[in-house]
Amino acid sequence: MRVGRGIALALARAGMDVAISYHRSAARARRTLRELQAAGARAVAIRADLSRPPAARRLVASAARTLGGLDVLVNSAAVLHRTPFRTTTPAQYGTLLDLNLRGAFFTCQAAARLMASRGGHIVNIGDAAGDKTYPGFIPYRLSKAGLVALTRSLAVVLRPDGIAVNCVSPGAVLRPVDFPRARWRRLSRGHQGSVEDVAAAVVFFATCPVYVTGQVLRVDGGETA
């Protein structure tokens, strides 16, 4: 939500009306909504469990109905858990893939149907971890690598409809709550970007010509160079 909040505020400051989704933290969503409104945006918060395809469809329809259309979709909802390969359960695997990848797939599908008559931009939020090896995060890495494949595939499929599909892949930005600080410093090698760095990349893709499509922009300080 912290990255999603930063992206939403950046889009609002760029002059867009914004719909945000949340699942559990209604209080946090209300705070973000007030910030968006203070930035001058028409804004709405919609509760949705995006791991469930019907909820994804309802979210997109509600956002378009409330704000008068849909020009940009940003898929930033994700869950991150350490799940060692030998002890990963089907439930843990399913939780990660259902939200991080299946949720993005069906949200894109719903958005593309609305955008087909007018064009638009879809921006998926990946992770530079998808290009690296972290043994305790295999399902998470699978979900993010799959998101890159989804981005490139949809860029081709949706090009005739004037819909650009791109991906922003951040490096170390926010420490997961279950990570000790010392371990996070080692993992990020002491280099961390900011939410604002990620948000600026999203605004670029949300406002660039639709001819820019199928691209993956790594916002990681050169970590994967």
**Could you name the CATH topology?**
Rossmann fold
Distance between the termini: 28 Å
CATH 4th-level superfamily: NAD(P)-binding Rossmann-like Domain
> What strand line-up does the widest sheet have?
3-4-5-6
Largest sheet: 4 strands, parallel
CATH architecture: 3-Layer(aba) Sandwich
Number of helices: 7
Assembly status:
single chain
Outline of this structure?
By secondary structure, this protein is of the alpha/beta class. It has 7 helices and 6 strands, in the order H-E-H-E-H-E-H-E-H-E-H-H-E. The protein has helices at residues 2-13, 26-38, 53-67, 90-115, 138-157, 181-188, 195-207; strands at 18-22, 43-47, 72-75, 120-125, 163-170, 216-219.
Describe the fold and architecture.
With 225 residues, this protein is of the alpha/beta class. The chain has one domain: NAD(P)-binding Rossmann-like Domain (Rossmann fold), CATH 3.40.50.720. It contains seven helices and six strands. The strands form two sheets. It has a four-stranded parallel β-sheet with strand order 3-4-5-6, sandwiched between helices. Strand 1, helix 2 and strand 2 form a beta-alpha-beta unit. Helix 1 runs parallel beside helix 2, helix 1 packs across helix 7 and helix 3 packs parallel to helix 4. It is globular. The mean pLDDT is 89.
Task: Walk me through the topology.
Elements: H1 2-13, E1 18-22, H2 26-38, E2 43-47, H3 53-67, E3 72-75, H4 90-115, E4 120-125, H5 138-157, E5 163-170, H6 181-188, H7 195-207, E6 216-219
